[in-house]
Design goal:
The radius of gyration is 14 Å and the shape is globular. A hairpin with a 4-residue loop joins β1 (30-32) and β2. It has one domain (7-113): Homing Intron 3 (I-Ppo) Encoded Endonuclease, Chain A (Alpha-Beta Complex). The chain is 32% helix and 19% strand. The protein is of the alpha+beta class. It has a two-stranded antiparallel sheet. A two-stranded antiparallel sheet has the order 3-4.
């Protein structure tokens, strides 16, 4: 059974204005280049630089690439990973993100390192 993880669709208490403010705040931390949309906000660590996006109104922190993928209207199943086709962990461009099971994601990364 799939579960909708989009905080903007799920939370009925959010007004359209609040949703637009959240979107605007998210994209203020994105630098769009010719290829990738680079996250310029907070990251997990320098060694593993996945973006983090805080939504205070719903008191939740999201990985920026997951938030962007869902914000674009895509469904992400609970427990699934998003693979960066561009291999840039700071990229949040939805077309560069591919949902997959954790097992498939791990297998893919092992095969690219071999």
């Amino acid at each position: 059974m799939s579960r909708d993880l989009c905080p903007l669709r799920k939370d009925a208490t959010l007004t359209d204005y609040t949703r637009s403010v959240i979107r605007e705040r998210f994209f203020s931390k994105v630098r769009k280049t010719r290829h990738c949309w680079v996250w310029t906000g907070r990251v997990t660590s320098k060694a593993n630089p996945y973006g983090l996006f805080n939504v205070p109104i719903i008191q939740k922190m999201f990985q920026a690439h997951r938030f962007s993928y869902i914000l674009a209207g895509n469904l992400l199943l609970a427990g699934h990973h998003l693979h960066h086709k561009c291999l840039n962990p700071t990229c949040v461009k939805p077309s560069h993100l591919v949902p997959m099971t954790p097992h498939d994601h791990m297998t893919l990364h092992k095969s690219t390192k071999a």
